[in-house]
Amino acid sequence: MIDATLRENVTFGGEIPDAAVIEALHRARLEFTSAGERGGLDMPLGERGRRLSGGQVQRVALARALAKQPEVLLLDEATSALDSVTEGEILASVEAFRGHSLVLMIAHRVTTLRDCDKIFVIEDGEIVEAGSYSELLQTSARFRDLAAVADGRPLAVADAGAR
Predict the structure, then answer these.
(1) CA distance 26 to 63
(2) Chain Cα centroid distance, residue 102
(3) Which of 62, 80, 89, 142 is deepest in the core (most CB within 10 A)?
(4) Poorest-pLDDT segment among 18-22, 43-47, 56-60, 81-85
(5) What does the DSSP 8-state code read for residue 130?
(6) Mean pLDDT of the chain
(7) Residue 18 belongs to what H/E stretch?
(8) Distance between CA 125 and CA 104 in Å, rounded?
């Protein structure tokens, strides 16, 4: 985040039309552009303006990435500060990039990866397993344990059900 307007934080010096900025903010579920919001795209953010929560800062960064429509979109813990409902909405928006961009997601929250084509499980810096979410649930005890914890189930129950 920089001490600048919402528009400047999304465009970050690039030439992006306001309509594309608003669309990116909408996809990132950050709605500061309505008439009811003081300033809209010209709203100052940062030290001298409106301060944002951690989740809002993440969504501004995501809107910045979405507005530029990159060939490769790297999301490194992009939804970690969001509640699960907002995360699901944003992941649905990112889904629109399939076929247009290569989307690489890094996440510790296993549920974030449910719709990914390919998941790589990394341990001690090495890829130890790979597959889709459903494939890994079938073939990987390690991944089943991670998914069980993410779903709030105790490991013993998850292990017993997998046998």
Answers:
(1) 8
(2) 14
(3) 62
(4) 81-85
(5) E
(6) 83
(7) helix 18-27
(8) 17
